[in-house]
Design a protein that fits this description.
The chain is of the alpha/beta class and about 220 residues long. The chain has a single domain, classed as P-loop containing nucleotide triphosphate hydrolases (Rossmann fold, 3-Layer(aba) Sandwich). The chain has helices spanning about 45-50, 75-85, 100-110, 115-130, 145-155, 175-190, 200-205; strands at about 1-15, 15-30, 35, 60-65, 65-70, 85-90, 160-165, 195, 210-215, 215-220. A six-stranded mixed sheet has the order 6-7-8-3-9-10, sandwiched between helices. A four-stranded antiparallel sheet has the order 2-1-4-5, with helices on one face.
């Protein structure tokens, strides 16, 4: 599903290159559940954003479903992202001007799903996440944990082939966090590929493989 070949990410300040990722080679099969771990500053979130096509590598090649992502323009990247990827952000990234219902509906509008289907899908996900009572509230009326639940719900509502999760339980109570991890595991068992960044060994254990990053390198 994913092939990263000699991927590097760096920032140039005058004549100095500051590397965030170095010589990343990684193969991910469809249906895997990968946990990316490592200390703060290791490059975990940067790698996740590159995988999610929200950032571009400085060097190297990225193939997604045999498509050469590294050659695509922003429009093509955006289309791929919308069609195949659900992203759970550490800082929620909910649209402040939209209600919970509208935030959940937005990915389905991008996919040009008809109104009747959208209504049924949003209703189902509100019920599954126990947030029916929050559907008319705006993000700033929710607690951090509730915003995170909505963020996860938004990521899975379009039934993407790939879910990328940046510390998906970071703002949740233990019980809520366990619920989210079980949900991701259940989706994975039904065929969805999941890649999470986590500091938690408990959460990492839900996956079938751990990728350890240190100072931008994959530890072998």
């Amino acid at each position: 599903m994913i092939s990263l070949q000699n991927i590097e990410k760096y920032y140039t300040n005058k004549f100095v290159k500051t590397y965030v990722l170095r010589n990343i080679n990684l193969e991910i099969e469809e249906g895997e559940f990968i946990s990316i771990m490592g200390p703060s500053g290791a490059g975990k979130s940067t790698l996740l954003y590159l995988l999610g096509m929200l950032d571009k590598p400085s060097d190297g090649e990225y193939y997604f479903l045999d498509e050469p992502v590294h050659k695509f323009n922003d429009r093509k990247l955006s289309e791929l992202h919308k069609s195949y990827i659900g992203f759970v952000f550490q800082q929620y990234h909910l649209i402040e001007e939209l209600t919970v219902y509208e935030n959940l509906e937005t990915p389905l509008i991008y996919q040009k799903m008809n109104s009747k289907e959208r209504k049924a899908r949003v209703g189902d996900i509100l019920d599954r996440f126990n947030i029916v009572g929050k559907k008319d509230l705006f993000p700033n009326q929710l607690s951090g944990g509730q915003q995170q639940l909505v963020g996860v719900a938004r990521a899975v509502i379009s039934e993407p082939k790939l879910i990328l999760a940046d510390e998906p339980t970071g703002n949740l109570h233990t019980d809520q966090g366990e619920e989210i991890m079980k949900l991701l595991k259940n989706l994975n068992e039904k065929g969805t590929t999941v890649i999470q960044v986590t500091h938690s060994k408990v959460n990492a254990a839900y996956g079938n493989r751990i990728v350890n990053l240190k100072d931008g390198w994959i530890e072998r």
